[in-house]
User: Fold this.
Amino acid sequence: MKSILETDNEFICDIQAPCFQMLSPEEAELVRASKTQVLFRKGDNLTKQGAFASYVLFIITGLAKQYVEGDSSKNFNLRIVKPGEFVGLSAVFTKNTFNYSSVALTDCQVFLVEKDAIANVVKQNGMFGFNIIKRYCEQNANLFDTLRMVLYKQMNGRMADTLLYIDGLKSENVDIFQLLSRKDIADFAGVSTESAVKLLKSFEKDGLIELNEKDILVVNHNALQEISKRG
Amino acid sequence: MKSILETDNEFICDIQAPCFQMLSPEEAELVRASKTQVLFRKGDNLTKQGAFASYVLFIITGLAKQYVEGDSSKNFNLRIVKPGEFVGLSAVFTKNTFNYSSVALTDCQVFLVEKDAIANVVKQNGMFGFNIIKRYCEQNANLFDTLRMVLYKQMNGRMADTLLYIDGLKSENVDIFQLLSRKDIADFAGVSTESAVKLLKSFEKDGLIELNEKDILVVNHNALQEISKRG
DNA sequence: AATTAGGACAAGTTTTTTATTGATGTGAAT
DNA sequence: ATTCACATCAATAAAAAACTTGTCCTAATT
Assistant:
């Protein structure tokens, strides 16, 4: 009898993600030996800000949101994590604790690999290491963009950024907006929930977007980008 | 500026839990050096079944529920974790992954200690080790009781057990029932939610308990124990 | 001093979740 | 074959979250 939560050992070999394809058989074995697969259900925490991070998470299927926690329910959303992406890469190299939380927006099949295994493989396999570092830098760059956004832009610009970002995920995930509450969107834009509601209404009135229940359709892409630029 | 989520380093010294009192200053320092404190918000996962377990959790304040996950939403609740108790002790000695999930029923201030630190202190300090083992054995014994319950008892007996167990927590935590849904209670008794509702009604009709909204008052303690014994 | 940006609060509405009840089905035990 | 001990399904009611809107307040900008 095998629980639905348990791992099929063959799974890692089947992974289509480019970064695992470039491993030699021995390296793949190294990873395989220190990995486990977990089904995170919708709403489960994948990581908790401040908790010890002894492993890296690799999303196989499902979507999660990554956020930083502030004081009492003041969260700020950093990004949506998609299949093929890592969470907690910083754990491998330096940080011993997660510096953000993340939560499953849908059920997520996730791969956990102990950080030592990843570190060893990185040391052995330059191409793999390069890829990991590249991913890490990308996330970092996005973090700078985010920082700039909250530092220099005001509500309209931030909401425009948020909408453009989420809309960009729609190609791969049509129902992304169904998974997000107004509070989620507000936490991406760094505004209060009420302000988010009002901003969305006003964007709709101005013909920039269309609101259908929870779904949001970006109608005037260029104008939104203009607002984003103006700040 | 210090986030509410961050640790006050002095906290561990102030801990009143007997098991930390018996450490020598150097041992306390060892623990302190590999610990972190995290605020888990109501609904956050403290542990996730199947994820790597590199640390032990010690509850300072708040309540959590510990449960095993089965197939799609078939969970079974093991226990309520109270302040002064550990979660994940098995990680220290053998198991590399958590074999259960747990979730905060209220906001929880939790202490995480890396397992190596605990292991080292246990090796040095016999009394501390004895205490840890004792706690671990207690949890284990409860597990056997639980196993017996689901193996040999049927609905009425299981619900009686569940009510007696939760009622036993009321002395320390009057509003414990407010924190539990009917599904939670059902998952403790290992019955369907609908059966739980019906059982509670029937217990009320028989004058064993009183239902006031979410709160449950055990009126006839002895009769419940009798039902528990009969199975 | 006046305007602006945006949060806080309050109150109402809608949607989602939880709880409840009855009816029906099933497999094990008699 | 029948009963027992449940689970499952469906429909409804009730409670809790989430969403919406308007009003007011404050700190920064003009």
The beta strands of chain B are 35-40, 45-47, 55-61, 64-69, 75-81, 86-87, 101-104, 108-114, 209-212, 215-218. Chain B touches chain A through 29 residues (CB under 8 Å). The two ends of chain B are 57 Å apart (CA to CA).
